[in-house]
Design goal:
Oligomer: single chain
Low-confidence stretches: 1-17
Structural class: mainly alpha
Distance between the termini: 40 Å
Radius of gyration: 19 Å
Helix content: 40-55%
Largest sheet: 2 strands, parallel
Number of helices: 15
Mean pLDDT: 87
Shape: globular
Strand content: under 5%
C-alpha cells in the first residue's frame, strides 16, 4: 500500500501532466479474463445470466433520462468522461447485484437504512474502538479521509489480518468486509454498488467538490443512507474513478482517462495506488532490460466495459 501520496483534485502531481503515457481505448486481452467463481455462483443462484443482468442495468440507464442527466452533470463536476461512471455501474450490476428496475427504489431503500439498528463492529468491538489501538497511531498523522482510512486498511493487513493479537483471532479477510459490512460479507450498495469503507475514504473529496456533508464511521446508518441515495452515491462513484485516474498518472506515469475498461477494473479491485506502484516497479525492471513497458490491463469486469463501449457512449448522444 502506498500511503501519504497527494492525490487530491487540487494537488500538483509529482510528474508533469504531459509526461503520462496515454492508454488507448480498447482491451489488451483478446478474450475476456476468467470471471471469479463467486460471481458465477451468485448469478446462477439468482437463476439469471450475465447477459440478462447487463441488459437490465443498460435498460435502466437507457430509459431513465434523469439518471443519465445526473451522471453527465456529476461527471462534469469531477472533470471525467461520464462513460467512466456508466462503466463502473454496468460492471457492478452485471457481475455483482441486479439493478433495480426503477431509480426511485434506491431512494426508498436509502431512507430505510436511517431507521435500521446496526454498527460497524466485530466481536463486540466497534471500528472506532479498534482504530484507537496503538498500531494505528501513525495514521492520525495523515491528512484527509482518504489517506487516514487507507493507512488504517494497510495496518489491518500488516498487523491484524489472519493473526492473533492480544489473545484475539482476527479473520483473514479484508478490513472492509470484517468491520463495515454488518449484514453479510461482500455486501455493496446503491446504484454504484459502493462499500462503506470506500465511501468513508472519499468523503472529504465529495464534501469539497459536491458540498455533501462528511460521513463518519460513528454513524453507520448515515453512511449506508448516503451510498444508497443516487444523488449522493453517484458523486462517490465519480470521486472514486477520479482518484484512480490520478493515482495512475502520478505513480505509474499512465493516463487512463481514455480507457473506461481500466477505470472500471480499478473500481472493481480497489487500491489503485498499490496497483499503480506495482506496475511502475515492473516497468522500471522492463526498461532496465530494454523491454517495452507494460500497459495497464483490464480484468473480466473492465473487459466487458470496453467490449460494450459503443453502446455505453450512445447513452449520452441524445441526453
Amino acid at each position: 500500500m502506498v500511503i501519504g501520496i497527494c492525490l487530491g483534485f487540487f494537488c500538483v502531481g509529482t510528474l508533469p501532466v504531459s509526461a503520462a503515457k496515454l492508454v488507448p481505448e480498447g482491451n489488451r486481452n483478446a478474450k475476456q479474463p476468467p470471471v471469479p467463481g463467486v460471481s458465477a455462483k451468485r448469478t446462477k443462484s439468482a437463476q439469471t445470466t450475465y447477459e440478462a443482468k447487463y441488459g437490465k442495468v443498460y435498460q435502466l440507464l437507457k430509459t431513465d433520462g434523469g439518471l443519465v442527466s445526473k451522471i453527465r452533470s456529476i461527471s462534469s463536476r469531477y472533470n471525467i468522461d461520464p462513460v467512466h461512471m456508466v462503466g463502473a455501474i454496468v460492471g457492478e450490476h452485471t457481475y455483482n447485484v441486479d439493478a433495480y428496475d426503477r431509480l426511485q427504489t434506491y431512494y426508498v431503500k436509502a431512507v430505510s437504512y436511517l431507521k435500521s439498528d446496526f454498527s460497524f463492529s466485530y466481536g463486540g468491538e466497534t471500528v472506532g474502538q479498534f482504530v484507537e489501538r496503538p498500531e494505528f497511531a501513525d495514521c492520525e498523522k495523515e491528512k484527509g479521509s482518504y489517506d487516514v482510512w487507507s493507512c488504517r486498511e494497510a495496518v489491518w493487513d500488516k498487523s491484524f489480518r489472519g493473526k492473533s493479537v492480544d489473545g484475539k483471532k482476527w479473520p483473514n479477510d479484508r478490513f472492509g468486509a470484517v468491520f463495515f459490512q454488518p449484514f453479510y460479507a461482500g455486501q455493496t450498495f446503491g446504484i454504484g454498488q459502493l462499500n462503506p469503507l470506500t465511501a468513508l475514504k472519499m468523503t472529504d473529496t465529495v464534501n469539497r467538490v459536491s458540498g455533501f456533508r462528511q460521513i463518519s464511521h460513528t454513524n453507520p446508518q448515515e453512511v449506508y443512507q448516503t451510498i444508497m441515495d443516487p444523488d449522493k452515491s453517484l458523486a462517490y462513484v465519480a470521486a472514486t474513478v477520479k482518484k484512480s485516474i490520478a493515482a495512475y498518472r502520478q505513480i505509474a506515469d499512465f493516463d487512463i482517462s481514455k480507457n473506461p475498461g481500466i477505470t472500471a477494473t480499478l473500481y472493481n479491485l480497489g487500491n489503485p495506488e498499490a496497483r499503480a506502484a506495482r506496475l511502475a516497479a515492473e516497468n522500471r525492471v522492463r526498461r532496465a532490460k530494454g523491454q517495452r513497458v507494460k500497459l495497464p490491463e483490464e480484468n473480466y469486469y473492465g473487459w466487458l466495459v470496453n467490449e460494450k463501449l459503443d453502446e455505453l457512449k450512445a447513452l449520452f448522444q441524445d441526453s
